[in-house]
Amino acid sequence: MMLSDAFVAIADPNRRYLLEELRRGPKTVNELASGLPVSRPAVSQHLKVLLEAGLVSAKADGTRRIYTVANGGFFKLNLWLDQFWEE
What are the protein's UniProt keywords (predicted)? Predict the structure, then answer.
């Protein structure tokens, strides 16, 4: 993952909403779409961007995919951001 991809991914308010929801626990696309004023396919596209940035992961559960936060992607963001607070 390139760090810039993660920043692009979190720049969108809908994707930040998805991350906040996933922080509360694993969810399916349908569960995530119920809280947004966008279509289920749009939520899937947002999740694809988050997956490619390494910020979420997906696991197959029958015909559904369960999405969760990928801590490793956030660890890299934190490392980069933390350099601005250290003196």
Answer: DNA-binding, Transcription, Transcription regulation
- Which pLDDT score, from 0 to 100, does residue 86 have? 66
3-state secondary structure of 24: coil
Given the DSSP bridges, would you call strands 64-69 and 56-61 parallel, antiparallel or unpaired? antiparallel
Q: Please name the amino acid found at residue 31.
A: E
pTM for the complete prediction?
A: 0.87
Cα–Cα dist 32/37, whole Å: 11
pLDDT of residue 67: 98
Sign of the alpha-carbon torsion through 2, 75, 26, 23: negative
Distance, CA of 32 to CA of 18 (rounded, Å): 7
Per-residue tokens: 4: 């810039």
In the chain, which stretches have pLDDT less than 50? none
| pLDDT score, position 2 | 60
